[in-house]
Amino acid sequence: MPIREIQTKPYTDQKSGTAGLRKKVAVFQQPHYLENFLQSIFDTETTLRGKTLIIGGDGRYYNRDAIYTAIAMAAANGVAKVVVGQGGLLSTPAASHLIRLRGAGGGFLFTASHNPAGPDGDFGIKFNVAGGGQAPEGLTGRIYEHSKTIQRYRIVEGASLDLDRRGMQKLEDTEIEVVDCVDDYAALMQTLFDFDRLRDWFKKGHSLRFDAMHAVTGPYAQRILVEQLGAPQSTVMNGCPLEDFGGGHPDPNLIYAKHLVDLVNSPASPDLAAASDGDGDRNMILGRGIFISPGDSLAMLAAHLHRLPGYRDGLKGLARSMPTCRAVDQVAKALAVEFHETPTGWKFFANLLDAGRLTLCGEESFGTSSSHAREKDGLWAVLAWLNVLAATGLSVREIAQQHWQRFGRHYFARHDYENLSAATAATVMQALADATAHLPGKSYDDYTVALADDFSYRDPVDGSIAVNQGLRVVFGDSARIVLRQSGTGTEGATLRLYLERYESRETALAWETAEALAPLSNIADQIVRIGELTGRKAPSVVT
Ligand code: VG1
Ligand code: CO
Questions:
Q1: 211 and 129, same structural domain?
Q2: Do 221 and 283 form a contact (C-beta atoms < 8 A)?
Q3: Domain C-terminal end among 181, 209, 242
Q4: Is 416 found in the same domain as 403?
Q5: Are residues 415 and 297 in the same domain?
Q6: How far is the CA of 113 from the centre of ligand 1 (A)?
Q7: Do residue 160 and residue 23 come from a single domain?
Q8: Count of domains in the chain?
Q9: Active site residue 91
Q10: Which of 355, 386, 407, 419 lies in disulfide reach of 330, CB 3.0 to 4.6 Å?
């Protein structure tokens, strides 16, 4: 089979966002579009030559086509070995783990995460580097620059491969190893959690409902929860990965997994209900009659993590993305551990994790994970919660109540305004940016602005600086309003407005979130003027 150099013309839109390159499937299907982007990676990250490359995806429409192309290009670009998940499947955290386990030079993760799939849906690629984390901004910037001038790509033509047969195959000089997508990940989970205790917990009649949303976590949940932990088969819902995710929206939140919210508010509620997203890196946690917001989940896991076998040595440090509520800050203070506030996007945690300065980190967007991987990890969070429940003997509600008693409660919500025009989104951002200089000292009801700025971050490990990471209006410890533009969408512009209110008074710990945040929402209307400037009466989604 000949290695061919194919002439191509550059595209101008291959700029990575918060988590990789995401576009409509039809955009990826344009002639040479995928090839151009992959060749830009091979040309820029030349260290992949002679190394191992991990390849997998979330199983969505176009996953297999993209993987065949990626393998044929890897072989033509001097990659020594490709390790690919059987059937083309690998969850994002499992791929991150494989990169680390195999000492690989990097990995291609074909996913658009929670974005809908199918011929009219979205597709995407995350390029992860040696060490398992997403390529840092400097590198994705260089790949983008290269993609604007690319003239040719290299590919092995006529390659025939069997993605469904485990074991070794060969393509030119490159070894192709097809692996079970769950094995190594499940082995890792066994080193972190007390599987005996979890088996016992299920044996005693406790129950879990996990919704894989017809996305990639199905096989992982089936193996770990049902086969290894002995949970009944009914534990896993929608466990079969489908190319269109069953027509659903695999975004585990109060809107797209509302059936779980209804379930925990019914007499049939399990002890724990949870869901993950398209590529398996997000998680939603619910208990009987209670939703645990991701920021709270992070803080509560931080407070209990020492109980779990993989974390007995204690926490090295804690971190959250800027818009995530400040609940975990309280835990970091109480435990006297290092704490970091990073921009949105998991890639910003990677250096701190590599430097051994973090054990646990999270984002408000249903992301939690630890130093075991360099990606957020949905099933990990579910196992961590199960292990906390089993180790403490407490219910989800009891864990939450004890936590709020001790640390106070951060009420939090995110209001998304989707499908705005780029110009409208820019107008709203600019209006608030212009206002920040005059806000400090101003009072709104009981709240006084202590700080208003555009968040920027200096990476403490490599000194790199990320600017324009979101506008924040901070009312001391009492409340915050944050506004930023999404970097993962494929249609129009999305603005995210984040509201956070802190209460430590005994009588203020059990309010409804929407009611608790109503006054702050009114203040946000006055300061951010999002309704006025966009003409929208209400957000598209509240989570
Ligand atoms: C969103 C979330 C962010 C998350 C990112 C990728 O980004 O807000 O916290 O890291 O998605 O998650 P944005 O720029 O749209 O707000 V995933 O599960 O798509 O890998
Ligand atoms: Co995801």
A1: no
A2: no
A3: 181
A4: no
A5: no
A6: 9
A7: yes
A8: 3
A9: no
A10: 407
CA distances from 91 to 97, 183, 324, 499 (A): 10, 12, 24, 31
pLDDT band at 300 (very low <50, low <70, confident <90, very high): very high
| Pocket of ligand 1 contains residue 114 by CB under 6 Å | yes
Which residue among the candidates 113, 147, 269, 321 is catalytic per the annotation?
Answer: 113
| Ligand 1: residue whose CA is nearest its atom 4 | 345
Q: What is the pLDDT of residues 146-193, one digit of tens each?
A: 999 999 999 999 889 999 999 999 999 999 999 999 999 999 999 999
417 and 395 share one domain: no
Which of 181, 200, 233 finishes a domain? 181
pLDDT band at 491 (very low <50, low <70, confident <90, very high): confident
Mean pLDDT confidence for 448-460: 98
The half-sphere exposure of 45 on its side-chain side, counting CA atoms within 13 A, is 28
Q: Is the pTM value of this prediction over 0.85?
A: yes
Instruction: Report which protein residue has its CA nearest ligand 1's atom 18.
Output: 113
CB 208 within 8 A of CB 386: yes
pLDDT in tens, 94-113: 999 999 999 999 999 999 99
418 lines ligand 1 (CB under 6 A): no
Structure token pair of residue 443: 């009072």
